[in-house]
Design a protein that fits this description.
42% of the residues lie in helices and 14% in strands. The chain is an alpha/beta fold. The protein has a seven-stranded mixed sheet with strand order 3-2-1-4-5-9-8, with helices on both faces. Strands 6-7 form a two-stranded antiparallel ribbon. Strand 6 and strand 7 form a beta hairpin.
Length: 394
């Protein structure tokens, strides 16, 4: 995939691509298909690379699952529902944490994944883990016929359609005091670098000027900045130079910069990534590999895949220029200043759960880029019906 092929090399390309590709996201494509006469609803299952590749993709999250477990506050005897468990990595950890008590129900819509989780449960001696095959359309009867103390939605929220209707019904299946825990990215996607993100412009400019000729960052970033500046960086007024640097950093978010830092289906070992950044970056690389990138035609890219490209590219740029960027939470991942405040205040996840009859009990930063939302049911108010259809994560 070369996102820059046959297009002007500008940061505006990214904005145009988002506007162009938004209709290609799973929810929008499913809705469009459903509207066509004689067209069946589509389920997106990615098996092009085989089961082992899907397992390796989800295994990359294990260090992050370990970091998540204390947040879940699991207690003996709990009934836990893991919706869209995939290959079951978090389900195994939760079942083990319950020490043979309670139940962990690991659901998925793909029978091959459910069979795999069953084999793993037996091999690991997890008698309190029960894999369950569920329907992809609406809320499966299994959910409404059981009661749960904890419902986990891990890297799945963007694939659930009609979330208000879906989680209104899930609310009925919560025990008193039950919680729904969502792990995912804020859905107001705006990961651009802004002026407030840089705390040491002098150091950043000097670093760019020292970039070795022919390196990836020289080729992909520095040469483009010099081209805009029309000469040596030192000859450009600071305000104009800062604008040019931000412009080119943001252009790189929508390029295939990440392809230079991939070793097989892992990130290159030389990247200076923080402990929780590396498994997240590896997970993103493996997701993109499952989706056939780099190499896919731009017109085929789904919105969620484009978001993975942007997120991985920003991690690569952050690790290279980290010392010049703000480091106080939630930086440097989410823009600071008005942009960051807007993202915090305009989150579709919080809005949808509020409409579905929940209150937000907590929101915890889960770096990089993600948050953990904890919701509990409001004690009063009607519960609306509706079908929430989801497509599986990769």
């Amino acid at each position: 995939m070369r996102l820059r092929s046959a297009r002007p090399r500008t940061a505006f390309v990214g904005a145009v691509l988002i506007a162009t590709l938004l209709p290609l996201c799973p929810a929008a494509r499913a809705a469009a298909d459903a509207a066509k006469p004689g067209k069946k609803k589509r389920i997106f299952i990615y098996w092009k690379s085989g089961l082992q590749a899907v397992i390796r993709t989800q295994e990359a999250k294990i260090p992050r699952i370990d970091a998540l477990l204390p947040i879940l506050k699991l207690k003996k005897g709990m009934s836990v529902l893991d919706i869209g468990a995939g290959t079951g990595q978090q389900s195994y950890k939760m079942a083990a944490a319950l020490r043979g008590t309670g139940h962990v129900y690991a659901t998925d819509i793909d029978p091959q994944l459910v069979a795999y989780m069953g084999d793993q449960a037996r091999a690991r001696g997890l008698k309190n883990l029960q894999p369950v095959l569920v329907t992809a359309d609406g809320v499966d009867p299994f959910y409404t016929s059981h009661k749960f103390d904890l419902v986990l939605i891990y890297d799945l929220i963007s694939y659930i359609h009609d979330r208000v209707g879906y989680f209104s019904q899930i609310r009925r299946s919560l025990n008193p005091g039950g919680r729904v825990v969502v792990v995912g990215q804020p859905e107001a996607d705006h990961y651009a670098f802004v002026p407030e993100d840089v705390v040491d412009w002098k150091g950043l400019v000097a670093d760019l000027e020292r970039e070795p000729q022919g390196s990836v960052f020289d080729r992909e970033l520095v040469r483009q900045i010099r081209s805009m500046a029309g000469g040596p960086l030192s000859s450009v007024p600071p305000e104009e130079l800062h604008r040019d640097i931000l412009f080119q950093l943001n252009r790189c978010l929508y390029e295939d910069l990440f392809a230079n830092f991939v070793d097989g289906d892992d990130v290159a070992p030389g990247l200076k990534l923080a402990p929780l950044e590396r498994p997240y970056a590896t997970w993103l690389v493996r997701r993109l590999r499952l989706a056939g990138m780099p190499g896919r035609n731009t017109a085929e890219i789904l919105y969620i895949e484009l978001r993975d490209v942007v997120t991985l590219n920003k991690l690569i740029l952050i690790q290279r220029y980290r010392k010049y960027l703000r480091s106080d939470a939630p930086h440097p991942y989410i823009p600071s200043g008005p942009e960051g405040r807007w993202i915090t205040g305009h989150n579709a996840i919080t809005r949808d759960f509020r409409k579905a009859g929940y209150v937000q009990a907590a929101k915890i930063g889960f770096v990089p880029f993600q948050d953990v939302w904890i919701f509990s049911a409001r004690p009063q108010g009607p519960v609306s019906g509706g079908k929430g259809r989801r497509t599986p994560p990769r």
